[in-house]
Amino acid sequence: MYMLHLVFDSVENGDLVEISFEGQNHLHSTRTNSNEVYEIHTSFVSSLFLGERSITVQMIKAVADTKLQLTLDVSKNVTLSNQTDDCVIVRQVSPLELMITINVFDKESGIKQIYVGAGSTREGFQIHPLLLVPSLSNVILFTEAPHGQAIYITAIVENHAGIRGHFHSHAIIMDHTPPIISNAVMNTTYISFGEDTLTTVSVTWEVIDAESSSTHCSCAIVVNNSVIIESGMRLSLHHFQTPYLPLIHGSMISAEVTCSNDADLKKILSVGPKLITYFPPDINNAAIYVNTLAETSSEVPVIPPGSPLIFSWGEFDDSYGIQTYSYRVLQGDQVTKDWEDTEMRTYVSVEDVSLKNNNLYIVEVTACSKDGIYSKAINASVLVTGDAPVLTGRHSKVTRTGEKIEIIWSDVFSVRPELLPTYAIKLGSQEGLVDILRHIETREQRHVFHNTYDGSDVFIDITCKYQTGASSVFREKQSLS
Fold it and tell me: Nearest-CA neighbor of 146 among 104, 95, 90?
């Protein structure tokens, strides 16, 4: 048995086409389906005793440039002499219409009359009574069976000798619902050609229809509300990939997947929208902020050993969408903590890394766009130190000139100038008193002040403190000179 599918263009509904095959002549009229495709479905039974076979397709009213696509499938091998169940082919072509082809011929006396009926049981006519039809092929039978109803077609064919034969179809399940489209995914891939970037769009989906034996699907790519490319309807299509397209960065795309079943019922699913983003996120204004109370003289953040490294970041340009941020920590060229995603968090507390004293660390942050394109990394330095000023063992110097007293302590402490040391000085005539100089703070290493103290002994208390809070205290008794 042969199944023939013809697809035309430049025709109209109702145009006549005559198809001849091994003495079987069928006259068909073209009809358009829901996808505006003009088509004819028919079937033939082939003689077992012929060698070469040919099919003739003749259009009654032909247009010179009409194009025809012909698909011929071998359905199955049958012997018709004792077979009645494979002669009637049924297709549902709309929610209420069945198309019937009866593959019966009589070489001796020919076909006189053909009756067709439909039932919910084999040989039954509960759904449609017997109807006299004019042709063996492309018979349209209207039914009002509910969704999921099994329908059996019976054809009674009478030849000119008055002998009748009963022929039956296999059950067909009525379908009133469109296919189900699910798991639709759209992805984009970019490739650079010189200064240009081209985009290919890939769409995949799944489609099922429990009642229909086949589904046809198409996919259209929509950019800024205009269709730019589409696949056309294809049998069992579940994937569509475009060629490389010159899409503009920042444009919005979506896909429309359309699937229809044997009953010509359509389902349309929109996938997206999705931004075309082949440029990385903009980092021109991005910055990292380390959580600390101290900085060096060159504005490098300082944290003590053993404390967590806490920092945040901001001002990445996310106009076209950011899907994740990543960070890492380095010490020189050595990776202390490798790249780790934070999703959309813009802060982190690194507590699983042992930061060593008197080491300079670098933190890096990068942003990833919705299409997986990473920006360049921004960075910031962090100094880890818990050092305090060191006492040298040397003395301060106090002198008196008239009513002015000068104290110099430049040799008392060994300091790290980048940690911005400050000094707090107190002077008293006895230990624990501050009657000469109550309390002053300075970054200098000398101080001159007016005082009328006329004693000879001075008790000195100097505290040197870094911005980190680490400090050392120097105390001694000096004689005024």
Answer: 95
Query: Mean pLDDT for the chain?
Result: 85
* pTM (two decimals): 0.59
The candidate with the shortest Cα–Cα distance to 367, out of 345, 350, 348, 352, is 345
DSSP-derived secondary structure letter, 409: -
Strand partners, 208: 180
- Render 134-184 in DSSP notation, one character per residue: S-SSSEEEE--PPTT-EEEEEEEEEETTS-EEEEEPPPEE---SPPEEEEE
Type of residue found at 239: H
Query: With contact defined as beta carbons under 8 Å apart, do 111 and 134 qualify?
Result: no
pLDDT at 13 over 80: no
| Cβ–Cβ < 8 Å for 316, 282 | yes
State the pLDDT at residue 23: 60
Instruction: Map tokens 């698909």 to a residue.
Output: 71
Closest CA relative to residue 186, chosen from 85, 101, 256: 256
Instruction: Map out the domains of the chain with their CATH numbers.
Output: 2-173 (2.60.40.10), 180-275 (2.60.40), 287-384 (2.60.40.10), 390-479 (2.60.40.10)
Give the model confidence (pLDDT) of 285-310 as tens digits.
Answer: 999 999 998 899 999 999 998 889 99
Task: Specify the range with the lowest mean pLDDT, choosing from 9-18, 28-37, 206-215.
Answer: 28-37
In the numeric block, the tokens 């046809």 are attached to 216
